């Protein structure tokens, strides 16, 4: 249960102000089909974070157990610092427009998550916990918690949230994860 809750919270908070939220806003503005866009986010996230979690689980099995808290703590610290750098919009979805709202969302979200902080966090979380499926479910739920409201209420929400404080909150969360891992290493 710790893996599920920790993964959900980590990704939901890390995703606030992320480029995929900007992408969700662009997609809903272009297609106006929130249900298909939300379904596309779900499918892309399950595939992307599934691969990431299995990679993290595999890496966790290769690393000596005494090193794991230090590597995970350092990784969480890096993600925490990364949270202080806000994402910028990556561009349009012109190449994928012919795929329609579901296909364009799947492709664009999958590509946007490659190398993203939430993908890296998924690898680290899967290495930390032995419950790979709970990490996949948790990170997927976190992605949906952060992006579905943007699809539904996008413009209204973004006018009322100060993203600077969201990034600081995410920094504090990942810093807490890092400190907990370092503490475990002692």
UniProtKB/TrEMBL annotation:
Its main location: membrane. Pfam families: GDT1. The keyword Magnesium does not apply. The chain crosses the membrane at residues 35-55, 67-84, 96-112, 132-153, 165-183. It is found in: Membrane. Keywords: Membrane, Transmembrane, Transmembrane helix. It is a multi-pass membrane protein. Belongs to the GDT1 family. This is GDT1 family protein. It comes from Gilvimarinus japonicus.
